[in-house]
Amino acid sequence: MILEPTHVGSFFARSETFIVADPCNSNLTKEEEATLHQSVISRIKDCRPGKWEVFLSIVENIFEYKGNKRIEEHCWALSALHEEVSDQISWTLEAEVIADSGQIGIFDEAFFGNDDAVIDAPKALQDSFYGACVYLTYDETKKEKRFGGCLDSGAIALSGYGDGLYPINVGREGQWGVGFNIPFIIPE
Questions:
Q1: Which residues contact 171 (CB under 8 A, 6 or more apart)?
Q2: Residue 181 to residues 17, 97, 108, 157, 177: CA-CA distances in angstroms?
Q3: Quick check: 111 pLDDT over 60?
Q4: 149: containing domain
Q5: How many domains, in total, are found in the chain?
Q6: Is 121 within a domain?
Q7: Which of 71, 115, 156, 162 is at a distance of 20 to 30 A from 61, taking alpha carbons?
Q8: Alpha-carbon radius of gyration of the chain
Q9: Confidence of residue 188 (pLDDT cuts 50, 70, 90)
Q10: What is the 3-state secondary structure (H, E, C) of 110-126?
Q11: pLDDT at 119
């Protein structure tokens, strides 16, 4: 069963280029990045700066085995919309992204991998961009997963069932990117 998309917060972007990537790749050098497939770090240009609202869509799966039922929840999509968006959005598949640590995020290019820019995270994680992303997807103290959330200039989500290659759908008004939808699971 698919649950209604949940608003999980907002972030503010200052640049016009967004990075969609697994945060575990945030420490790659430009030289290392150049040798990898373009889907490891996907750059989406001409995105509208400003405030973005973030939504996570969750799916409940019921598993039955020998009379026992188990319900599991998974994040099936990460979506973000600029605060100034109209109904005239044209959606296209613009790129793909690879998840290596079971997470995918949408980040302002200037923020991606910048440990100094992380301020809205627990004190123990404030010195680590990747640590702040992990904090939003897994609570170490309670040993439970979270589905994601927002950082100052980006958003992060668990990627469905884990690692894989996922489509990046971008909504545009004219030249400006004003929406993102990254489906991790195709609902039945």
A1: 81, 85, 89, 90, 91, 177, 178, 179, 180, 181
A2: 16, 12, 16, 12, 11
A3: yes
A4: 6-183
A5: 1
A6: yes
A7: 156
A8: 16
A9: low
A10: CCCCCHHHCCCCCHHHC
A11: 61
Tokens 């040993």 correspond to: 143
Any domain includes 188: no
Task: Report phi then psi at 134, rounded to 5.
Answer: -65, -40
Cβ partners under 8 Å of residue 143, min gap 6? none
| Residue 67, both tokens | 């009379």
Q: Which amino acid is at 111?
A: F
Write down the pTM of the prediction: 0.88
In-domain check, residue 34: yes
Residues 6+ apart with CB under 8 A from 7: 53, 54, 55
Q: Token pair of 73, please?
A: 């929840």
Q: For 13-39, what is each residue's pLDDT tens digit?
A: 999 999 999 998 888 877 887 777 777
What 3-state class would DSSP assign to 130?
helix
